[in-house]
Amino acid sequence: MSKTEARTPAGPEGGGPRRTGELPPAHTALICVALPGLAISTQDAQLTGEGLQGFYRAGRRVLSRCQVRIAGREPLAVQARMTGADRARFVGALRTSPSGGPDPDVVVERIRSAEGVERITLRSAAARPLRLPVEVALGTDLADLAAIAAGTEGPELAATVHGSGLRWAGSAGRAQVTADPPPTDALASAGLLRWEVEMAPGGSVTLELRVRLDSAGPVRAAGRTAADPLASARATGDDPRIGPLLTTGIADLRALLVRDPGHPVDTHLAAGAPWRCGLAPAEALAAARMTLPLGTRLAVGTLRTLARTQVTGSGPRGGMIPGPRRDAGGHLPPGCTGTEATLLFPVVLAEAYRWGLPERETEELLPTAERCLTWLRDAVGEGNYLPDPQPGGPVRCETQAHAHRAALLGADLLDALGRPGGRGLREWARALRAVFRRDFWIDDRGGGRPAAARTPDGRPTHHLGAACVHLLDTGLLGGGEFAPGLLDRVQTEHLAHLLGTPDMDSGWGLRGLSAKEAAYNPFGHRGGAVRVHETAVAVAGLAAAGHEKHAGALLGGLLAAAEAFQYRLPDMYAGEVRVEGSVPLPHPAACRPAATSAAASVLLLTALAGIRPDVPAGTVTLRPMRSAPLGEVGLTGLRVAGAPFSVRVSRLGLALVEEAADGLQLGL
Predict the structure, then answer these.
(1) Which residues make Cβ contacts (< 8 Å) with residue 145, sequence separation at least 6?
(2) Which residue, 35, 26, 15, 64, is CA-closest to 149?
(3) Which string of DSSP letters, residue by residue, matches 537-551?
């Protein structure tokens, strides 16, 4: 386990150390991310050490306090905003002359970067030369992020003067701040650096602070190297929101890229900042799958990383990709993300092969996928169903959807590469479809609904939640066709109608639990809050099934929410109903950025074009949304078969390929 994984607590999904208190709120924070670096700030720029504030490296707070005073006063905060996934800009103003009237005569700009750099620039608007004392008060506790989340961080450490800055030493290592230009004076006992700056009228002075944790080495974010696995795609069209949605989503994905410590060439996505900066297998695979239109390099790095974690041996867990338990809300016990990851592994490999993953790399990972599929067949229990968690857990509808998709896509991949086992997987999937359509469909006056689960004694649970959207996500087979689903056509139509009702569609996206259900809570992370990933899966699945009206409504809600969140979508937000003039309510414990939410921007926009590649067959099929809910849409810089791919969808819902790899033919 890497240092980041060991030190980073989980949010409400579980998997982290036990907390004694509530998580510090993060919904109003400006979170700069370039993993393994973080910088978390409030709107006024001053880092006071309260809550989550500070610079972090690999889950350790390197600097908790950074407070600027000019002529003995703090600048008045004027503006704070993110200027990229990894940096924020703060502007303050100061009036240094009491006789100068009410107008500020010094502007203070602070650029803060997740890589551990803060640049402080003073600009004079005074009509006379200024000579001003500048003080920066610094401090750190070298606290673990898990301890901060639990409210158990220790006191500040004593500083010593070191070179052109200050140093702190503790059991977790040594932190230091160096200043350029060097300070005029340094006072270790107070953690102060001091300068006397002179500015001519209209002049400026810049001070730069560099923060470092000696035991962790220099920050080198995986998303800032020549080996970046994500293509720089762009979106244009009639709706001005699609461009910043995709651009911001890709920037956040790059910020969340993490290297496998033992194999630095392989990268994967952390689940989200600030709470989940380590490896979360199910989320990493789900995000890698959604980003296949940006290339297959992230998928192969994620698959290789997780292949090294696969449980070996012949026991009941042999072949699994381990993962922590996940809270499922008030109606069901926690599920196992390891089950989801194990079922996702062959799916991601099979679809990456269709998007252009070379056969050599596919065959390298195929044995791991085969072990996942063997585990699936061995783990199937009574009634041909897969319980979750193993053994003796309930039979969840989404787990059966994951298992069914894994079997069909796994069989398709085995056949394509000449491996045995595909026939048996298809026969099991066919049998599962038959019993699922009988056992999991609950008839009612409205046409029926899928059961959320069946208890170990066979009783169906009736609550309606967003987990059922995975029944619409059937997966891509060869020839540009989607696999058959667990529901028949009529049942799929009823499910589409249910997802489009006001009880499920909040207007900002899909609620995790219907507003009519017991225990509904608009802030419940599995009990009513909107989860972006599930809403995006619903949009893509409904569009593929031909239910474009409901898909377009959910897409419009997500776009409106994205605009309200400056296009950096959190993993969840409140499921309060959307009314005119309202904005979505943030969830104080949400991750923002989050890997699945950032990757959802890719899934949503490529679903509009209906891109279905089969690179081994040399074809790509387009099935755009004929209703063109966002008008004309152009996508450039995608990657199919390792080459640039661009497509445009007209206002009439007609798709045109504008750029593609040589030899790639348009399928029918």
Answers:
(1) 7, 8, 9, 56, 59, 60, 61, 274, 277
(2) 26
(3) HHHHHHHHTT-HHHH
- End-to-end, the C-alpha distance of the chain in Å comes to 47
Instruction: Give residue-wise pLDDT tens across range 545-598.
Output: 999 999 999 999 999 999 999 999 999 999 999 999 999 999 999 999 999 999
Mean pLDDT of the chain: 93
Alpha carbons 438 and 432: distance in angstroms, whole number: 10
* Domain 3-34+37-220: top CATH class: mainly beta
Distances (CA, A) of 556 to 436, 578, 598: 32, 12, 17
Quick: pLDDT tens for 280-309.
999 999 999 999 999 999 999 999 999 999
Instruction: Write out the DSSP string of 31-79.
Output: EEEETTEEEEE-TT--EES-TT-EEEETTEEEE-EEEEEETTBPPEEEE
Q: What are phi and psi of 392, to 5 degrees?
A: 80, 5
Give Cα separations from 351 to 280, 552, 605, 613 (angstroms). Answer: 20, 25, 18, 9
Among residues 658, 663, 661, 631, which one has the least CA distance to residue 646? 658
CATH architecture of the region 223-230+240-604: Alpha/alpha barrel (1.50)
Q: Where are the domains of the chain?
A: 3-34+37-220, 223-230+240-604
Q: Is residue 666 within 8 Å of 621, Cβ to Cβ?
A: yes
Q: Kindly report the CA angle at 439 between 437 and 443, in degrees rounded to 5? A: 80
Crossing angle between the packed helical segments 337-355 and 359-379, to the nearest 10 degrees: 150
Q: What's the CA gap between 6 and 284, in Å, rounded? A: 17
> Contact at 8 Å (CB) between 178 and 165?
yes
- Measure CA 269 to chain center: 8
Quick check: pTM over 0.90?
A: yes
Helix, strand, coil shares, percent, the chain, to 5: 30, 30, 40
